[in-house]
Design brief:
Number of helices: 6
Number of strands: 10
Strand order of the largest sheet: 5-4-3-6-7-8
Radius of gyration: 16 Å
CATH architecture: 3-Layer(aba) Sandwich
Helix content: 25-40%
Order of helices and strands: HEEHHEHEEEHEEEHE
Number of domains: 1
CATH class: Alpha Beta
Structural class: alpha/beta
Length: about 190
């Protein structure tokens, strides 16, 4: 599936938003990918999940893990297509943790799935949890890589679509973006 078709799907489902956003990473951007809006449609969820699952099927993961909340739906679909157990991590007291009786067994081959990556911070936190539990990370699958491939999280990293969605530190926000009211749709706010 080519990049333009993917962008058209995001636009048609109102999953690509324009305005002034503070991203989960804390950076500011004129574009925001609300993947939940596109993933609510089974045909798109199945298609995007399939692209990620096919990329990693040959490595036979035992487990899929995803950071809450954005990646849960996609991660679950990837796990379903691969026929493997799927869990999630979540924030508690501003730290990423695995709880609710979920866990990773030492030696399990783990695939990390995320909906959107800007800096890779949430995925790196999940990677740390996997390593602490003794899991072996086989790769990272992402729906949207906002860095256009410049953020390297893992040697075996795949994104359904790579886009350059410019973002800024708070101190560097251009005047034309600063003129718009700030929206904070990310999961940390």
């Amino acid at each position: 599936m080519d990049k333009e078709k993917i962008i058209d799907i995001f636009k048609s489902t109102e999953a690509l938003l324009e305005g002034h956003f503070v991203l989960t990473s804390g950076r500011h951007s004129a574009a925001y990918f609300q993947c939940a809006k596109v993933l609510q449609f089974p045909e798109h969820l199945t298609t995007f999940g399939s692209l990620i699952a096919k990329q990693f099927a040959g490595q036979a993961p035992d487990l899929v893990i995803t950071p809450a909340i954005g990646g849960i739906v996609l991660g679950t679909e990837v796990g379903r297509q691969l026929g493997v157990r799927t869990i999630f991590s979540e924030r508690k007291d501003k730290r990423m943790v695995i709880r609710r009786g979920l866990g990773i067994e030492a030696g399990e081959k783990v695939l990390i799935v995320e909906d959107v990556v800007t800096t890779g911070g949430s995925v790196r936190e999940v990677m740390s949890l996997v390593k602490q539990a003794g899991g072996n990370i086989i790769g990272v699958g992402v729906l949207v890589d906002r860095s256009n491939g410049t953020v390297s999280i893992h040697d075996n990293q795949y994104a359904v679509v790579k886009l350059e969605a410019v973002s800024y530190e708070q101190s560097d926000v251009p005047e034309e973006l600063a003129a718009f009211p700030i929206q904070k749709p990310g999961s940390r706010f």
